[in-house]
Amino acid sequence: MTVNPWVRPYVLTGGRTRTRHRLFVHTLIAVPEYDPGYSQRLPPEARALYERAHSAVQSVAELSAHCGVSLGVTRVLIGDMAARERLIVNPDAYSSPYDPRLLKRVIDGLYELA
Fold this sequence. Notes:
Layout: H1 9-13, E1 28-30, H2 36-41, H3 44-55, E2 58-59, H4 60-67, H5 71-83, E3 88-90, H6 100-113
Antiparallel strand pairs: 1-2, 1-3
Helix pairs in contact: 3-4, 3-5, 4-5
């Protein structure tokens, strides 16, 4: 799913650029209780993020890349869904961007690409 290039990002977020949650690119997102009715009421970009996060726990950056939604828009849309308690934001998964567990995941991912 890719975003319509004619729709400006501020239209998708209602002009908002910030959320109540600290969403780093490595922050993990999960949907513990998937609601198909809720999913159908979402705009296409938010629906893609919601459904992708339901399929597997993923980082904000992974969701953004796989769904073709810009990182800024992804953060706002995830923040909106988190505020409605439709998904879980796990900011403590990595206490630092230099956490050894995160670096190991990055290295493992690079090996898979090679």
